[in-house]
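Researcher: Re-running this chain for the archive, since the previous output was lost when a drive failed. Same request as before.
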Amino acid sequence: MEIIKFLIIILILISVHEFGHFIVAKIFNVYVSEFSLGFGPKIFSHKGKETEFTIRLLPLGGFAAMVGEEGEISEDLAHVPFERTLKGVNRFKQFLIMFAGSFMNLVLAFVIFCGIVATNDIANTKPIIGEVAQNSPAQKAGLQENDYVLKIIQDDDITKVNTFTDLSLFSMFNTEGEAYEMIVSRDGKEQTLDITPEYDQESKNYVAGFSSTVLKKSSNPLTIVQNGFNVSVDRSKDIFTSLKMLFNGKAGLDDLSGPVGMVDMTKQISESGGLAALINFTAFLSINLAIFNLLPIPALDGGRIFILAIEAITRRKMSESLESKIIGLSFMLLMALIIYVTFNDLVKIFLK
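Model: Regenerated structure tokens:
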């Protein structure tokens, strides 16, 4: 059942992403030969005026096949004029086509978050302190409700706090319960608090004893849009923080999750928070997909955009053979990474 839920989420995200590429390509009159959900053998096919719409066996991906995207054009598409190929439109239009998939995922997340803040009270993503537990390390240090956390200092390592998730991640990786300084803004003045976490037998973690504030649901359209936008921005910051942790060594490849790990995560979220939590998770994954696809990795949209930028700066077109080799190699490395994290996911699940 959890696999089905996860596949539904993935199909929604992929459909929206590929539709972005498809619709902008059509706007610029680029010939799209196939719009597919999934990879592998076809299990459904419908031929439109130009585009073949297909569903394929493996539902963990999709594509909008634009003529000229992969370099050489097959014989059955040789009749398509050059100006209707992807390479036949100017670089700015190519950029918009490549960017459109991620843009649509960001729009989807924003719409979902607007729906959530209009119908539910949710945890505030801003680093504002809500409840401070009685006799907790946080209370003993002087932390108060509505304090706005600016940064955390531990052993000369300064962590800038942008969202409440930054606080959660810091606590998660502070596995030895080491003391730290928390810099907060209170009544317009900065204050430094010394916090020493205490071990909690129930959670099996070192805790400080504070939680986030609650973002109350609203029926005011302007408030809904503002809150939905703020949550979307903060969730995006969370993803960039995670990427930063990967690059600076605070997190490793073992902390990544592949398809198997995502199914397990879907199960946990569904059991703990029900449908509302799953919808929230879908919005977060949509932002994740958008940002991941914009990374400058040649096999991804961001890599294609990066190549376009290099061509624009150097005013020289990269040879199709070199571009194909770079994209092919990066795709192989990407597949190797997916296999690695999937293996790790299986190990984590079976060792629970």
